[in-house]
Amino acid sequence: MSENVFQKLVEALKERCSCKFRLEGTSWRRYDDYPVKMSDGRELGTMIGGGNLERIYFEWKGSIKWPDDWIDPYPPFIDYLYFSSKENTIEVAARGGVNLEFMGKMYYAVWVPSILHPQLLERRKDVMKLARFVPAVVKDLCIHSKITNEVLAKYNVDMSEVRVSEAFLNCHMKFSIAGMNDDEIIENMLRRVEILSELKRRWEEWLPSEERREYYESTIVCPEDYPARYRIYGGHDGIRRLGLYEGVPLLRKYPLESGNPERDKRGEKSVKLCLWDGFKVYNLDGYRLRLAIKTERGVELLGKPDRKGRIVLNEKGILKEEDLDKETLVIVVDKRMKRLPKIPLEKMQFLREEFPEMFTASSEE
């Protein structure tokens, strides 16, 4: 694709949206300022703008202001366009305007690393387990999936053409321009811009809704007072409260059972690193994971919990990082330690439509 054609693409985007943008080589990137101060004094879009959300909310604002923090004052449009000369493709993307990893911390005092979302979502039973700890987050995933499927069906587009980043719900569409003339390239690009813009519009109608707010606030676990925040997050910069810090529980799917041995091995190494660093890691059943050494007599747990429940191995010389690759070092489930509490099913009735089997008598432990 020539530089002249790329310029035509940029002009076509400018005709449809008067947003701010940057050109970086063969990429077009939209940028907007958040939050936006309105004439009536309201500030809109703090959550949409992203940034250091922990600092914004845990240190400054205290709590999310519904619906204002979720309202995007800018018209729904794509946020990114990139031409790859190596692949001879064009990629179009729209931001999701949400950080589900942060929402898990904000409302449920649980950290679900974004790297695990694709693995979790591959199995329905795992999603239901996850829902017992972050139900409104799972509802967001379900709503976004429903909207995506409906929009793609309207435009007769296969789901394989769309890539969604589960933590932020950014949507990407990539297509090959091999053999296309200039008009065909522009036409194909604009079609995808239309699809992603509609998807973004519908999703942004959901974000500030009263229904969504009710789901989060009716299942909140994390106290909003600052002593509790410092116990979980530690604070930031000059006002850090290390003496209060206890660490946020970390949810991991283990064992991964992905069917891909290499993927499982990488995932296991990642869990070992978290345990070595002293994170409180739990599996999807809410049980604490520990590092242990296999011996002739069986399995010997490493380290002891301190008064805050943390088991730090990397600071006391108990275990070196190079030891993490040893076959004798294993991950075990310690059911003697306090289990991560689940949210009662009666508070999660908004997930009954998506997961009716979760509400049967046999599903409750």
Description:
The chain is α+β, with helices and mostly antiparallel strands and 365 residues long. It has two domains: 3-99 and 132-217, no CATH class; 250-334, no CATH class. It is 35% helix and 15% strand. The protein is built from eleven helices and 13 strands. A six-stranded antiparallel sheet has the order 1-2-5-6-8-7, covered by helices on one side. A hairpin with a 4-residue loop joins strand 5 and strand 6. Helix 1 (3-16) runs parallel beside helix 8 (182-206), helix 6 packs across helix 7 (135-154) and helix 7 packs antiparallel against helix 8. The longest helix has 25 residues, at 182-206. The mean pLDDT is 88.
Largest sheet: 6 strands, antiparallel
Strand order of the largest sheet: 1-2-5-6-8-7
* Overall residue-averaged pLDDT value: 88
Helix percentage: 25-40%
Count of alpha/pi helices: 11
Care to count the β-strands?
Answer: 13
The radius of gyration computed from the alpha-carbon positions, rounded to a whole number of angstroms, is: 23 Å
Q: Assembly type of the shown chains? A: single chain
- Which secondary-structure class do the elements indicate? alpha+beta
Tell me what portion of residues adopts beta-strand conformation. 15-25%
Q: Would you identify the regions where 5 or more consecutive residues have pLDDT less than 50? A: none
